[in-house]
Each structure stands twice: as structure tokens, then as C-alpha cells.
Write a structure and sequence with these properties.
Structural class: mainly beta
Number of helices: 3
Distance between the termini: 44 Å
Number of strands: 39
Shape: globular
Length: about 550
């Protein structure tokens, strides 16, 4: 349905048919839509994503990976609510035509959605799902493990490639302005992340933990592509075995009042063998606060000192201003891959809470700084060690959400067990061992950030789900299950209020936006993007009066 101009007509006609339009009006809609297509311009109106828009995104936009700088992935929209969500229907679907699964979080600006697969970037009409332009990056040697989206600033889209380049394209038509290298693919680097735009900085990270490589966070000039600053993750010593690793493959968050960006870093290398890298291995598996203008490190907290289980701490550092134990605080929360939920004071990195949110058996407790203490007996060994969680972690790149009304941090969790082995024959390079998953399942967990207690949980299937989470002010939680179903849950108790099948696995996080007085929910399954909205007759069903 995406291959011709009539696709626009089909989508609009389908939408109106679902709302009960009679056949006569249906035909008129098709004619009107055809007229619209004949006059549709080849170029798009100016995007002009300003710093002000990124600071306070309007309801008709989703201009950055998390929706806004906080990483809460919470929307103030309320048209879709617990009373009418059951009538949510398909507005349009866009098929990429490939085998790759969408992992990107789409961006919305001026009625145009931008989303990605490895080597591919699309601009589509957010009202109809019609393709406006499609950019394909040249064939390359990079790891095509996934692609998480784009950044937009002024009229330019910023996109990372599997062979670790940053591309700047014209948002109106997809033409390339410049391409600059981030790192050398021949050494084993790749890139998957959606760039973070802060002021006049395009901030990117890097992937590549199959080799012993140093990693970094880098700021690039949005006009020229030149490096403004680079912060190196690991403290490179002069000894024979400097620390390597600490990949930076997920977009961070930003506090404009403190002027700090918050970024998670990945595991040290070699991955499963720590004998040649004694100590904590700073700043791998860490949450760091950096000055976005200089790249200077302000503070760091390490969720997994001396990691030997591939538990990156790149999960979204969610920023919340609220009360904690009777005191107003500027908070940072992270559900980390290692199985622990952390609450920090983001002004200085002070730990306020550390608690597991599922089965963990690899620690001896928590130290005075709030960091889990690794148990040496749980390091990978030639005869194997039973470890919880597994290598994929108790959560991963899929986004959590924070609901301010309920104080719930909602995350797609993965209780799991695995056997880890060290393999001396592998030496001290790259993976240097093996891990074999035994069991796991998916559970949507609602964590009380004051205590770390799980207020409610909703099981989503064996093996686990790759879906992220979105909450709305109306009291809804949107996510997906292990069977490819999109879900709407009641945020107060986790009960299912709506579901729809995608026919494929889900590996992205939902977004929502409002256009022309109608709220849309955007989800993806496999290589298909789905837009949902209410029939017109149900859009006026509001929340109950309090």
C-alpha cells in the first residue's frame, strides 16, 4: 500500500470507513485525496527544529529519541484514555519491505515522521503513512545489529551508519550534506545510536565490544561535522594492559538547568574475562555526567564495577524532579541491565537507592557508595557458573517510562538465568568466554521509585519482549508482549485494556502525538510501522470527573 500515491487515499478512506462514514462520503474522500496528491509539493516545509522546541516539545511533535530531554517517555496527551482505548483502531501501516526489525524510536516534526533501519532512513507523512523520501546508505562492512533513530536540528537530520559514520541530510528531501567518520570500522567499531542534540552540539557514541577497543562520547558541530570535543570512557594507562571497552551506544538525557548530559557506558573488554583488568575498570558500566559544551566529566556512578557478564549500563538515565523521602530532589533513575534499580541525586551523583528489581545472584551486597559488590565466585569459570540475570540482562535498550502521577517507574523486565563459562583458549581478547541462556520471561514491572518495591507486574511471555514503554497523563501504559501484541495497560494496576497483534516481534518503544485534534499512537512490529487512533465518535469520551 506504500508503493503509489493512491496509498494516501487508501489510508484516509480506511480511517474514515472505520469511523462509520457512508459510501458517498467515502467516495468523496478518495476524490479529495487524489486532488491533494496532485498538488502535494515534492519538497517539505521547513522543519526548523530549534533549541527551544527541544527544550519544550509541542504536542504535535516528538523531536528527539526520548520525546524530550528527561527520558521519562511520558506524554501529557489524554484523548486516548482508559474509557475509550478499547476502540483504538488502525489508521495506517507502513511496510519497509525488508527483513530487519525496527528498533528505532521515530521522530516527528512538522507532521513528518523520520525512522530508520540499518543503512536506511525514511521520511513519511504522519497523517497518512505515505512515503515522502527514502535514503539508502552505501553498502558497507559495519555490524548491522540495529539502528535506533535520528536526531534533528534546524533543517537537518543526523543519522549514524553501521560502519561508524555520521551523516547529515536535508530534512526536506533526504539529500546528503556531509558524511564524517566517527571511528574506524576496520578496527571493529560500529554505530547504532540516535544522536542527541543539545544546543549546537550533535552528540554521538560508539559500539564495538567484540574487540579490545577504547571508546568515547563525541560532540560534533551540526554545520561542519567537525569534532568539538571528545570524552574518553576508559582511563588509558601506560601499562601493558590498558582498560578498553565501555561502548556508548544509547542516547543519553539532558538537564538544561544544570547544563549536564547523562550517559551510560558499556562493559569493559575482554568481555567475560577480567583477569587482565583488575580493579573497577572506570569508567565502564557507568552513568556519567558531562558538560555538553566542553565534554568535561562532572561526576560518575558505576552500577557494575569490574563487570564480567556483559551488563552494559547504557540503559536510559531517566530524569525526574520530585520528592524523595520528604526532600525535593533532582533525581536520576536507571533500571540497569545487571538487575538493579538505582536512584541518584543528579546534581552530584550521590546514590539514594539501590535495590534489585528481579532475580540477581552475582553480588555480595552493596557498598557504601550504593554500588553492587561483585562476588568473585560468580565470575565465569571453565566449569561454568549459574548466573541471574542472563547476558541480555534484567532489561536492555528498550525504553522505560516514568509516570509522575503515580510515581511509578515502568520497565520491560527480563527475569532470567544463564550459565557463564570462561575459555582460557580464547585468551584475553574480545568475548573471551561463553554464556548460554537457560530460562527467561518478560514482565512489565511498575517500580515505586521511593522504595524500589514492585507495585504491580504484568507477564508478557516466555523468552521476553523487546518492547519499550510509554505512559500518558490519562493513566495508560503502552508496550508489547513476547508474542508480537501491542498492549495498553492501566497504569494504576497493570490490567490489560486493549491489545492488537503485529504479526512479528517488537523491538522498539512506542511514541504518541496529536495532529488535527486527533491523538495517534505509533508502534512497530518486525519491519512495519503502525499508527493507531480513535474513531471520531469516541474522541470526546473523556476521563471521569474527580
Amino acid at each position: 500500500m506504500q508503493r503509489c500515491a493512491s496509498g494516501v487515499c487508501f489510508h484516509l478512506a480506511l480511517r474514515d470507513f472505520q469511523t462509520g462514514m457512508k459510501l458517498r462520503n467515502y467516495a468523496l474522500a478518495v476524490v479529495a485525496c487524489t486532488m491533494l496528491w496532485l498538488t502535494f509539493p515534492h519538497g517539505l516545509s521547513g522543519q526548523n527544529v530549534t533549541a527551544a522546541m527541544l527544550l519544550k516539545p509541542p504536542a504535535d511533535s516528538w523531536p528527539s529519541y526520548h520525546g524530550d530531554y528527561s527520558g521519562m517517555r511520558h506524554s501529557n496527551l489524554t484523548q486516548i484514555n482508559p474509557r475509550n482505548v478499547g476502540s483504538l483502531g488502525l489508521s495506517w501501516a507502513f511496510q519497509t519491505g525488508g527483513n530487519a526489525t525496527i528498533k528505532a524510536s521515530p521522530l516527528l516534526v512538522d507532521g513528518i515522521l523520520y525512522f530508520t533501519l540499518p543503512d536506511n532512513l525514511w521520511a513519511i507523512d504522519a497523517r497518512s503513512g505515505h512515503q515522502l523520501w527514502h535514503y539508502t546508505y552505501p553498502p558497507n562492512k559495519g555490524d548491522h545489529i540495529g539502528q535506533r533513530g535520528v536526531g534533528i536540528y534546524n533543517d537537518w537530520v543526523f543519522f549514524t551508519s553501521p560502519d561508524a559514520h555520521l551523516i547529515s541530510l536535508n530534512a526536506k528531501n533526504g539529500t546528503v550534506r556531509w558524511i564524517v567518520p566517527i571511528a574506524d570500522v576496520e578496527k571493529g567499531y560500529w554505530a547504532t545510536m540516535a544522536p542527541l542534540i543539545v544546543g549546537n552540539h550533535v552528540i554521538v557514541g560508539i559500539g564495538g565490544d567484540l574487540d579490545n577497543l577504547p571508546t568515547f562520547v563525541r560532540s560534533v558541530d551540526p554545520d561542519t561535522g567537525k569534532t568539538q570535543w571528545q570524552w574518553d570512557v576508559t582511563l588509558q594507562g601506560n601499562g601493558p594492559d590498558p582498560i578498553t571497552g565501555g561502548t556508548t551506544w544509547m542516547a543519553g538525557t539532558y538537564d538544561p538547568k544544570l547544563n549536564l548530559i547523562y550517559w551510560g557506558t558499556g562493559n569493559p573488554t575482554p568481555v567475560l574475562t577480567g583477569s587482565n583488568r583488575p580493579g573497577d575498570n572506570l569508567y565502564t558500566c557507568s552513568i556519567v555526567a558531562l558538560n555538553p559544551d566542553t565534554g568535561k566529566l562532572v561526576w560518575a556512578f558505576q552500577p557494575s564495577p569490574h563487570d564480567t557478564h556483559d551488563w552494559d549500563a547504557v540503559e536510559v538515565p531517566v530524569l525526574v524532579d520530585g520528592e524523595f523521602h520528604g526532600q525535593q530532589r533532582k533525581l536520576l533513575m536507571q533500571a540497569s541491565r545487571n538487575g538493579y534499580f538505582f536512584v541518584l541525586d543528579r546534581t552530584n551523583g550521590e546514590n539514594l537507592l539501590t535495590t534489585p528489581f528481579g532475580p540477581v545472584n552475582w553480588t555480595l551486597g552493596v557498598d557504601k557508595q550504593g554500588r553492587p559488590i561483585p562476588n568473585p565466585a560468580k565470575e565465569p569459570a571453565p566449569d561454568g557458573r549459574l548466573i541471574a540475570p542472563d547476558e541480555g540482562g534484567l532489561t536492555n535498550f528498550r525504553s522505560p517510562s516514568f509516570d509522575p502521577k503515580t510515581g511509578l517507574f515502568i520497565v520491560d523486565a527480563h527475569p532470567s538465568w544463564s550459565i557463564y563459562f570462561s575459555k582460557p583458549a580464547d585468551g584475553t581478547y574480545g568475548w573471551a568466554g561463553g554464556d548460554y541462556g537457560l530460562w527467561g520471561k518478560g514482565v512489565i514491572e511498575a517500580i515505586d521509585y521511593q522504595t524500589g518495591k514492585i507495585r504491580w507486574s504484568h507477564e508478557v511471555g516466555a523468552g521476553g519482549s523487546g518492547a519499550g514503554v510509554l505512559t500518558t497523563e490519562s493513566g495508560l501504559t503502552f508496550t508489547g508482549d513476547a508474542h508480537g501484541n501491542f498492549l495498553a495497560l492501566d497504569t494504576s494496576d497493570g490490567k490489560t485494556l486493549w491489545h492488537a497483534g503485529s504479526g512479528a516481534s517488537i523491538a522498539s518503544s512506542p511514541i504518541t502525538y496529536e495532529l488535527d485534534g486527533s491523538q495517534y499512537l505509533l508502534t512497530s512490529g518486525g519491519g512495519v510501522l503502525f499508527a493507531w487512533r480513535l474513531p471520531e465518535a469516541n474522541r470526546q469520551i473523556g476521563l471521569p470527573l474527580r
